Fold each of these.
Amino acid sequence: MSFQEKNITVTLVNFSLILGFYLIRLFQMIQSGSFNSTNVFRLWGIIIALAVIVTIAATVLTHIVSAIIQAIKTKGEPDIEDIKDERDQLIDLKGTKVTYFVSSIGSFLSMLTFVFGQPPLVMFTLLIFFGVVAQIIGDILRLYLYRRGF
Amino acid sequence: MGNRRINNNIRTLRFFQDEMTQQQLAKKVGVTRQTIIAMEKGKYSPSLELAFRIALVFEVPLEEVFSYDLENDVK
């Protein structure tokens, strides 16, 4: 598995965990009757902060762990292929395209709930949900393309 | 547009260059080993720039490394 694949796998696991955390917190809010703007926007903040911090930390950690594993394997200076060549960039581009597509559909559906008389909170809740789901789908496509070759 | 219309002889050319490894070729042309593997399997068609760099490494004309399959061409 290449460095890019490891990186995507770690991001995919992170975003899946973040999605799980988001859904659990959301159901807890609905069950306890505390589904209000203050709590929902706080959760928004937590999710965005988590996504940024965890992604950066995971990338750094993947780099360090890969270097250690390779140093043990080769018993010398680690040589990690962390360069992004044209194939990596094309795979990244395809993943981003799908992410934006899913995100756009999600945004449209979220706004549609507002049109059909749902409170704005539902729209905002769905917006972040589709944002995270779009990222996960984009990462799955990237991994699939890496596994297939292109 | 077909996926497998561009064929290549990279594996053969590596063999005639003292069994040059995929890693060595990857380093010389500035890509990852995975990209060389994908090209040899016919899964990935390189950019024109990368194709020229590969031909320069083997010191052969471009058409000796890559060929275009006209039979599968979509009319």
Amino acid sequence: MADRTIDREPMAETVRITGHHGDEIEAYLAHPPGGGPSAGVVVLHHMPGYDEATKRITRTFAAHGYAAVLPNLHWREAPGASPDDAAAAVRAAGGVPDERLVGDVEGGARFLRSLESANGKVGVIGYCSGGRQAFLAACRLPLDAAVDCYGAFVVDPPPAGMPLQVEPIVGLAGNLSCPLLGLFGAEDTHPSPAETARLEQELARHGKTFQFHTYDGAGHGFFAVDRPSYRPHAASDGWSRVWDWFGRYLAA
Amino acid sequence: MCTYHTERVEVTGSGKGPDGWFPLRLASVYLDHPQHALAEHTLNIDFLNPAQGPSARVAVELGEESARALAGAILAALDAVDSVGSLP
């Protein structure tokens, strides 16, 4: 019995995937045991980088039956560096370029679809900067479902004085390739509820399938269990909505 | 997205990182979500030598009051030297 219990545990390993421009980058793969079939999820880490907390999230997807891959979006600037040092270097350099991000998500999706256990469906989810990137990827790539967790600067540009070199991408909403779930905090300022309301309007105008939830008493980063921003009620409800969303749109 | 206003200043001196001392070239000062401190936002300072790679970094994350106190202490220490003259 003990062995069978161990067999059910998700497995995780560091792998290499082929990202933008054919670059080989580091990624963290977590997947359920057995031969599938399993849907795939590309997980996009937050500004603080390819860290333990996001690897834990990636394993959570595997525990729920998904093959999940977390590309190290900071690999090129800082291969082998600690996640916080890498994040500082990328932050100072203006953030992850959008084109590169799209190529890296494409590489992650290709990797997931190539797994023998794949059911052919791939979704994307991102947190913080990754939330914006999940929306971007879903507008630029053929995906099956997307989740944006409090991604900023989709609608409004970054404030002056920020080193981040990103532009609003709300204009891409008409190209959204898949259903989008948005999870936001009512007390967040980036993105503010006014910004996410404008994104909702734009998605509705284009007749897109989407569902947004904005949680009272929660601000930015409410999923982050290791930070003071953690809000258990919002996170718990948010996770249940993620399972519902991916369960609905990533089933074979 | 978690970044706000950033000040960058060229510096001279040395910092001690995980691999020992290295010459400093740049300090990046910004208010942001911290990596480690248990606070929503902190005043972060990265002392860097970009030519030596991302790991050539000494980082601090300070509460706002601490950061202001530190800034005052730095100026007070420098002013004290100015008023006394050169160090013995």
Amino acid sequence: MIELEALSKRFGSVEAVRGVSLRAPDGRITGLLGPNGAGKSTTLRLLYGVLEADAGRALIDGLDIARAPIAARARLGVLPHNAGIYPALTTRENIRYFGRLLGLGGEALEARIDELVRLLDLGAIADRRARGFSQGQRLKVALARALVHSPRNLVLDEPTNGLDVLATRNLRELILGLRDAGHAVLFSSHVMQEVAALCDDIVIIGGGRVVAAGSPAELAGTVASGLLEDAFVAALATGARP
Amino acid sequence: MRALVTVFLKEILENARDRRTLLSALIVGPIGAPLLFAFLINTMVERNLDNAERPLKLTVAGRGNAPNLVAFLEGHNVVIKDFTGDGGAATRAVRTHEERLVLEIPADFGAHLGRGVPAPVRLYTDYSDTSAAAERGRAEALLAHYSTRIAQWRLEARGVAPSLVHAIAVDEIDVATPAGRAATLLGMLSYFFVFATLMGGIYVAIDATAGERERSSLEPLLTLPVERRVLVVGKILAAGAWMVVSLTLTVVAFAISMRFVRLDALGMSNAFGPRTALAIVLLMLPFVVLGAALMTLVASFTRSYREAQSWLTFVVLLPTLPIMYAAISQLPSRPALMWVPSLSQHLLITSLLRAEPLAGADVAVSAGATLAVGAVLAAIAVRLYRREQILG
């Protein structure tokens, strides 16, 4: 389970994140939805601890990322925004590197890599060096890397960026499978349809603040039209008011 | 420890597939440096040999005024070329580099000589033309020699022993051992070793820091449950491993290429055997740590691969500056200098090449001080990686 409690972050005079609280419980998919520049990536970076919060805290299975970063990160799989992979290494080597750093090794690691190659349909590029991979191929390798230790909690920052239709569908099935296996999945997106199709809970973020939260049905119920899109726009308009 | 080894091995493997790393670690130092050095030494050797053997070309105005002097000069390997014109013409000719040296013998030269008063000659020369210095020196020495000979004849003619005018007899005894004389030239070698060492790690350091950030692979790495100091130390050690490879190859290449240099032509011997080569690599190991930490630190500061590249090409020059100064000024080895990294390695290697015994305390101070500076730089690099700005 991932819990954010009143996280705040300021860069100079810009308040990027202002008291964001949310819960991503086990066995559910939580979507962080917001326009570009709303503070989604900053919130997630605070969550996985590459940025330090000015106030508030982020808990991974109850472990504070700021106080127990190593233990908290061991329970976390992260796909950062535009995550890069090592161009001189093959797909397998890229995954293996992270697997080893996560304490895996030997037969178990190789079996897990095989599994991920199958799961993410990486067979054709498994032993090719990553230089020249397409955006979608790079993303899948980065995703495989984030999943190598079967983390209880998964954080994906704009995971469908640059994926084609088929790959997006595979990813969706993968995420649903993880949810059904009891993992907590938190992912961000600025594409409303994607979030609507996949998420059990939606947190709408605008101007660094949570402006609305609830299940897709709950959110749609807040507007007369009953459309999620209208709810999204309305929430952002309300949140933009001081 | 496991994570450290993982990071180390991954950086080694990744860079083994990088053309820039291979080029700078396996080609630039190990092949480029010995070639350049052998070329420099051979040029120097040949010029030394040439200067003594080659006839001195001297342009003389008014040779008819001093036939004996001209005959003396011609008897001492001087080729005389006639010059017609006055002093003004001679000045112009030298200034425009038409002539390097013009000796003007005035018409009253013989008359002065006959009366026993100093006979004037004028040597037109351009002191700003350093390439003429050797020829000027030879011409002046020959004129002084002729002058002394005439003076001796005059004293003998008056019944005075010529030895009376020599109050002091200076006899120079050159105590330089052949190996020591070679070491003056070989003193430049440590410069190449330091350079090759740094070149071996430069692209590894850039790739592991600025390169990792530019490829956006740093952020995923930092989300792993691995201490940042482990990541940084692993990267530093990987750069160090490549530096050792580059250094070792360079030392071996030098040991081999030195066999083809005509050091014997300068009366020098060559003390550069396999044992010396091994000792050089060992003496340089602490500097490898320092250099790897320094380059990793500097590359971590920069925002991009290109910026890291331009910074590091400047940074790799820093450790070579004390060496250049020491090699040019022929700085003698002193225990106090062992505290200065790179300079201490230079002095120890130079002593080694002179076949002088190394003081254990000097080696210990050199290694200790260099490692301490390396540890401080590594600690700063770790602190840098703990800051959130490291993501750029």
Amino acid sequence: MLLEATSTMDFIGQKFADFLTYTGFANVAWANIIMIAVGAFFIWLAIKKDFEPLLLIPIGLGIILGNIPFKAAGLEIGLYEDNSVLNIFYQGVRQGWYPPLIFLGIGALTDFSALIANPKMMLIGAAAQFGIFGAYIIALALGFEPNQAAGIAIIGGADGPTAIFLSSKLSPNLMGAIAVCAYSYMALVPVIQPFIMRALTTKKEKLIKMKKNREVSQTERILFPIVGLLITTFIVPSGLPLLGMLFFGNLLKESTKTTRLAKTAGAALNDIVVMLLGLTVGCSTQASEFLTMDTILIFVLGACAFMIASASGVLFVKLMNVFLPQGKKINPLIGNAGVSAVPMAARISNQEGLKADPHNYLLMHAMGPNVAGVIGSAVAAGVLLGFLS
Amino acid sequence: MKKYVLFAFALIVAVAVKAQGAHDFKINEVFIANPEVSDFAGYQDEYGEVGSWIEIMNTSYTTHDIRSCFLTNDRAVLNEKLSAPERIAMMSLIPKGDIRTNLAGRQFVTFFADGNTNRSSLHLNFKLEAGKENFIALYDGNGITLLDQVIVPADLKPGYSYARVSKEDPNTKEISYEWVQLEPSKVTPNNANDGSQVSDKIADWKEKDPHGIAMAIISMSIVFGCLILLFAFFFTFGWILNRMAKLNRVKAIRKIHESAERLVVIAKEGAETKGIEMENYAAAISLALHEYMGNMHDVESGVLTIQHHASAWETKDHMLRHTPELHHQ
């Protein structure tokens, strides 16, 4: 009897010791702790500082989730383990079908009338894409391969889904860092852009008042997604997944016959995909993959890309003003909105405009280059994909 | 009626998709075992035997299943007068149920031409003969549609394979294909054929544009090109709409002018004949003005001005619930 009890106790002790080897405490490394702290910092930024909470909360928690240490024993729980739930969610990122779904939502939510009313704003959206190619040049100089450099450089488009889409195709090993970097800089638009805008504009330029945009007819609104799709995808077919879904979403909205679908695409579907995308992108930043010299370089390059993009937008407006007649000049403070961080970049234009003149509301004017930036960055991604995939 | 049109459309699309999938299969490489080369260590089947084989490639970028298609070495199938069952009798069916026949994009499957169909679904019911011209054809599941064919020349060297290799034109960059004899070290069953001259895109960019300047110039030009075209379209379209609106206004004003002129004539005639009364005259002018103002006012401001009027119904006495009173007995 006593012998039996001893052997049972041994068995329990052995199993308990075995269980302990599975716990996070037994498998933790310093890198995991650092990444968990980074995740907690993102959540703090989102809640306390209100920096893009819809993105940073899922990403922040995802970082924590992805860095919970566990024993690699085929439990099918980790993001990178086949058949795990997280791995199934991650397929949307890895195979690049979350970003087009997000573009569908963006299309269904975006009002392109500011751009249709003043089509020259499209040129600002195009100019701001120089950030992407400026960063591409720097990345090559730092020794990255062309496909990796393209994946990193797309951060300059300030468009998270586009960055994920392109990096999943061209440089999947860097995708986690690129995605986190892109979303971080999107959240940091209010910090990065204002000083560039102030530095590059004179007081007189900041006071330029722009005429109210004309009314846009329903026909123009319906034609925009159709013509936009045809022109952009005929030139850059590789941008089809992003541009196709963007214009499809917009047509759902503007046709006025599919309001229900537009509402679903812009609200419920978009929210679901944002949650899954944010969470799995966060999870993909496992310490072993994320805490590398490449990640630091990606963050530095991302900042360069973002700053070049903002600056080139502002400078291009100044260049346009040289050729525009008096009374039709554009306030350069809307140049930063050429990056596709919608609508944060346009809000910054408005805030800076109001600081210079409390009666100068630039929001609607800035929405033009802002939505043009969405199209521009998707076209740029398509071009890079076409050249390098 | 609508349902039938939709059904017919769906049917056409479905047929087109099916046909497109089958047409993506190409005969990619053929190896004919030569009895003269006894020590040749070629591609072995599941039984470890080395023999003749035919490699098929899915040239598309999507998964297609080659099951139910046919392979044959009988030229008689080219006779268009034959019925489908007669043709099928001369062919080797690729059976259903083998996962190896489901080809992902740009992938390959190799069939053994040894006449032993009982061995597995990858074995064909015919053999290829060395030293002779061998005709090989791939047919769709209907037994009628020819998907691809090749004639392996009689002078195929022993140990060599006959392979379809891609070639890039250095000037036009267009890719074409040609059939060549591949030496034994380059025979590649279940793999892309060696001899492909299509260059690797990334390596090409790295070599020819190490600083990224060309990429920046080309890509920015494309981005600008797309958005300039969009700008041009909507600028022109907006201008046309604006002109049309102006023209409509001009037309409306002309119409008013014409009716005003008619009124003036009536008024003049009335004054001359003294048959017009003052009230009628004023009514005609008012009507003309009303029509003019109505046409001018085609775009509403969209501002609603509802003035708030206070009434006794809004007093707190009416709006709030009275405090319940306790009645002690």
